[in-house]
Design goal:
The protein has four helices and 26 strands. It has 467 residues and is α+β, with helices and mostly antiparallel strands. The chain has four domains: 5-18 and 82-235, Glucose Permease (Domain IIA), CATH 2.70.70; 31-78; 260-376, abc- transporter (atp binding component) like domain (Coagulation Factor XIII, Chain A, domain 1, Distorted Sandwich); 386-465, Immunoglobulins (Immunoglobulin-like, Sandwich). Strands 1, 2, 4, 5, 6, 7, 9 and 10 form an eight-stranded antiparallel beta sheet that branches. A five-stranded mixed beta sheet has the order 13-19-18-15-16, with no helix packed on it. The protein has a four-stranded antiparallel beta sheet with strand order 12-11-14-17, with no helix packed on it. It is globular, with a radius of gyration of 24 Å. The two termini are 36 Å apart.
């Protein structure tokens, strides 16, 4: 997974030159005072514009507002510690589930590579965390990127192509850089074109949406490149024997190394070109018509670098085995990978099952239906989910519990409608592809979250959570 290593360093050098830490003041403004002033700016502007018509007067008023906000922000940043822990990974999903950590900061100062766990989950000179989403289908639905800490936006770059893949990359990405004070900055890179919700000079708070995950710039797969800096130098927040002794997280975010399934689907057609990931424009299905048919299947895996054996079984409705095959590892065994297979089967009506073992462990047990005619093939709503709300450093996180291999009976891509409410009022509503959404730390403390899964046509049952 390429990132913007050299370009990020250049951009951050420019930011450092303009964001050098001011001397600490005895009476600094608080982040919430900056928030309050910025929130009042549109109303003050509207009131001033009602009584002042001249362009010069209006421009001068807007400039004064920005200058006052910047002075407050400078004061608040002067009292920042420069070493605030990160409350959560700032992307709409769960690392180790629908999000996958492909690269960390390269901690080897020479020509080798070293991640915090003394392994090779990085590449030479890499300056941040690369966390991928599954495909461009999720990118189109939307995977939010949030502010990890309070701070002031120092740079926004927008307008660049966001569907780069493999070797088809470009040098310039879409990104946001936030200054959290005293040399602590965060870079949010490779964003989806047109998704940035902030502009240079804005004050942002932890949990506020900044944009959406994309694949702009020097990016070989849709992902977020997240660099966090202390004293203007990249650091890795994950602790480990070859990294920092102390975690850079408020609550340590575990990085699982156990093999797991990130996605599964059936198809009537082969997974060729854009029908395969990362595009995944294939027609997914959980229903076939009886008769002699080709059944295509794809299993997407995480932490799959050491797989040595695969077993595929098709089980008829009466429990008998139609196929018991050991096709071998025909795909690249890698941390994030996928395998596709095709079987010609004599399909009889009823509910069949596919069981796939990896190194003797069943990771896929997928039902699919066989009907007598095409007229009986019908779309079905997604399966029910669970939801929970946790709060870390004031940021509310709504997390969906979901079986990634069986989230929909038709194996469709599921999106989630998150609606946050407080006192009967909606404070945030968003449809996203990720298993987690966030609410800014300044939002009401009693806000609750409701989640409705959907496949783009039908919706499953809504669940509600409070925390």
């Amino acid at each position: 997974m390429r990132a913007v290593a050299a370009l990020v360093v250049l951009a951050l050098s420019a930011v450092a030159a303009t964001a050098a830490a001011p001397a600490q003041s005895a009476a600094c403004a608080t982040p919430d005072q900056v928030v309050a002033f910025q929130s009042a700016m549109p109303r003050a502007k509207a009131a001033y514009f009602r009584t002042h018509r001249r362009t010069r007067q209006r421009d001068a008023f807007v400039a004064r507002q920005a200058k006052q906000r910047d002075a407050l922000a400078k004061s608040a940043l002067s009292c920042a510690s420069g070493s605030a822990p990160l409350p959560f990974f700032p992307q709409g999903g769960v690392v180790g589930r629908d999000l996958y950590l492909t690269n960390t900061v390269d901690l080897d100062p020479g020509g080798g590579v070293r991640d915090p766990w003394c392994g090779g989950r990085t590449y030479d000179g890499h300056t941040g965390e690369d966390v991928v989403i599954r495909s461009f289908r999720e990118q189109r639905i939307g995977v939010p990127v949030f502010a990890a800490l309070d701070g002031q936006v120092r740079e926004v770059q927008e307008g660049n192509k966001d569907t780069n893949y493999g070797d088809q990359t470009l040098p310039w990405d879409n990104h946001v850089i936030v200054d959290a004070g005293h040399g602590q900055l965060q870079v949010y890179g490779h964003l989806r074109r047109g998704s940035a919700t902030v502009k240079r000079g804005d004050w942002v708070v932890a949990g506020q949406q900044l944009g959406l995950t994309g694949s702009s710039g020097n990016s070989s797969w849709p992902h977020l490149h997240f660099t966090t800096m202390r004293d203007f130098a990249p650091v890795d927040p994950w602790p480990g024997p070859c990294g920092a002794a102390a975690s850079g997280w408020t609550v340590d975010a575990p990085v699982d190394t156990e093999l797991y399934v990130r996605d599964f689907t059936f198809s009537r057609t082969a997974f060729t070109e854009h029908l395969d990931v990362p595009w995944d424009d294939v027609q997914r299905t959980g229903t076939f018509v009886a008769g002699r048919r080709d059944v295509h299947l794809r299993v997407e895996l995480g932490n799959a670098a050491s797989i040595s054996a695969v077993r595929v079984r098709f089980v008829r409705p009466d429990g008998s085995i139609a196929v018991d095959d050991s096709p071998g590892v025909t795909f690249r065994a890698w941390r994030q990978t996928w395998g596709t297979w095709r079987y010609a089967l004599d399909l009889s009506p009823g509910r069949w099952r596919l069981v796939v073992d990896f190194d003797g462990r069943v990771l896929v047990d997928a039902p699919f239906d066989i009907v007598r005619s095409e007229a009986q093939v019908a779309n079905r709503p997604p399966n029910a989910v669970t939801a929970s709300v946790t709060r870390v450093a004031g940021v509310a996180l709504c997390t969906v519990g979901q079986d990634l291999a069986r989230e929909d009976p038709d194996y469709d891509i599921v999106r989630y409608r998150y609606v946050w409410t407080s006192g009967g009022r909606v404070v945030r509503a968003v449809t996203a592809a990720g298993l987690r959404d966030a609410l800014p730390r300044t939002a009401p403390a009693d806000a609750t979250c409701s989640v409705t899964p959907g496949d783009g046509r039908l919706t499953g049952p809504t669940v509600r959570a409070a925390g």
